[in-house]
């Protein structure tokens, strides 16, 4: 697994996890972690590894004492990947290829942190052929993501986003929702409501050819920023400016909607590097 550190980023979990598995995050379960909680009599918590001889000698009731710690626990980490038709936009790479690269980085990062990873992919519904339940097995996650690079189906919508929450555990997790979000705002809002128990990182993938590198004159294909539908347009200067203004308005609308759910979106229009995600967590996610 050479060079996996180059694909990983550092993320933060701003809550205590309740998992019983060892990981890098503060937990609520008693365990051999690093945060000291206090002492209990050995009869209440019979674990010889934790015996506190100093406190046992001092105990007026002559009970053997054990130390308690908060366990460092694993957290469920999810990459939720949009397979709708608008994600096929772009060449070298398509937006979908960029989404897969980000999902791979999420998988590496979770594996490096000792957390469990799951991939959930959707279009008109959740596509179970390209989804995987929570697992510590990095290789199988990367194999599935490699298969996803062959995905080429068109005429696919995004309503499957509403089903994603059914594929997540009841335990609070860290969810990277990777999409261009070219879908009606009410669909995004309904999905955000369904995911509200989790910490959400919306990763917004836009190709510069969609909104800034537009033709100045002549026939061109254009994506509708609200529906993801492709339109053939005869470009003139004012039409070009209309499209640029529509994307600027769309960006503002998305930011406002995500912030209502305490989720700071990460807009990406250039090639992804893990450092971008590390900076995001340093800036927006405090412990």
From TrEMBL:
Residues 47-251 form the DUF58 domain. Signal peptide: none annotated. InterPro entries: DUF58 (IPR002881), vWFA_dom_sf (IPR036465). Coiled coil: none annotated. It comes from Methylovorus glucosotrophus (strain SIP3-4). This is DUF58 domain-containing protein. Pfam families: DUF58 (PF01882).
